[in-house]
Amino acid sequence: MAKNERFSDPRYGPAERQMAESLVEIERQMLEEEAGEECDCKDGMFPGLTRRNLLAGGAALGGSLLTAGQGRADAPPGAVEYRVQPEPTKEQGRTILDDGGYGSRSQFESEVRWRYPTASLDSSWSMTPLASGHGIITPSGLHFERHHAGIPAIDPRTHSLTLHGMVDQPMRFTMDDLQRLPAVSRMHFIECSGNTLTEWTEPTLKTVQGTHGLTSTSEWTGVPLSTVLRMAGLQDGAAWILAEGADAAVMTRSVPIDKAMDDAILAYAQNGEALRPEQGYPLRLLLPGFEGNTHIKWLRRLEVSDKPFMTREETSKYTDLMPDGTARQFTMEMDAKSVITFPSGAMRLPRPGYYEITGIAWSGRGKVETVEVSTDGGETWEQAALEEPVLSKCHTRFRLPWVWDGEEAVLQSRVTDETGYVQPTLEELVNVRGTNSVYHLNAIQNWHIAPNGEVTNVHA
Ligand code: CO
User: Fold this and answer.
1) CA of 326 to the centre of ligand 1 (A)
2) Which helix (H) or strand (E) holds 17?
3) How close is the Cα of 389 to the center of ligand 1, in Å?
4) Which residues contact 318 (CB under 8 A, 6 or more apart)?
5) Fewest CB within 10 A of the end CB: N or C in the chain?
6) What are the structural domain ranges in the chain?
7) Domain 337-458, what fold?
8) How far does residue 290's CA lie from ligand 1's centre (Å)?
9) What is the whole-number distance in angstroms between the Cα of residue 200 and the centre of ligand 1?
10) pLDDT tens digit string along 22-65?
11) Against a cut of 0.85, is the pTM above it?
12) Distance from residue 55's CA to the centre of ligand 1 (Å)
């Protein structure tokens, strides 16, 4: 398909089309650069994933792409370049003082978030390298991001949260005030409802980081939102809460009061330490299972009302145009979804034989009940093992042993959640939703294995 026809559907406005085109282009250039490199790693199973020069993907901003050898002499982000010891048993290792008291990852590990090439850096997002992930926790530094006006640097000593509107007692909380209140720690995924948005009509991105990297899981710690709402006293008729961020976009979303009183968290910590700045430091709203855009970062204000506020992010954006021309609004719960992360796109299986198929599954409505895996394009299914713990509204790791016979194969995973909802095929999803909308694509993903071991993104 010609380049300018690829995103011709009406759901792509000029900005979306440009983003989608440049995303395809940037991935193509990265993989091409990989292929031209002289090194052992391109013959491995993870071409494009364990390579140092991929870290330049993080620097591939505003149209400037990788330059050959860039960063090669330096350690990858998050690592420190140390002299490699030829005989580590024969000489003393480095001292505990060398890392300044805050550890770093191995200089041989180079996975980074991949920046989605938006037109400007002011509004931007980055994707989690799911293919190289283990277990269910996303390292804080690899959690996907979405910013509408950059990452603010906020001093927690001057930051506060104002709670007003239909409450008996308007209140203002400093960070100290909030950290004195009873806290909870919960593991939850956050998924952008735009995750997988390029895949509606044809297989477009090549890697699972590109197709599914807008979901991540962390342990979040903070105060139940219900606690502060009870302190302020909700008035009769209170039905919605506006949550507002302190970034330059002054991001706002309306949250149903039932959700606020159920499991919403005013989170100040992530994976055992303070939130990362790009995740909302010093305070973010966490709405387990809801689309990522509602988890307002740099949270500074909550206003209680009897109706939704109809902000830009719930009218112009984050609505879903249906085939009959009406739009779904406030589609906040993320439908159950799963994806195989190994093997996945742009990998190459070196030879027939034993492999462990693995991936993640999740649902915005509760726990994962089962994950089935097919190796023949959905003809037959086998139940995968679910790794404990299986938590509500949290990534769940699944595994299935597989002996590849060297023949062509199409791998799929299909999750069923505890409400009985079954992940649809793309055809089933499109039959209901049409192809006018970009958000909430949770269809079954296909990875094609060629006889030479190459793994590619295909539609069934
Ligand atoms: Co939605």
Assistant:
1) 14
2) helix 14-36
3) 27
4) 193, 291, 293, 331, 439
5) N
6) 3-121, 160-328, 337-458
7) Immunoglobulin-like (2.60.40)
8) 8
9) 16
10) 777 777 776 776 666 544 444 455 544 443 333 333 333 333 33
11) yes
12) 32
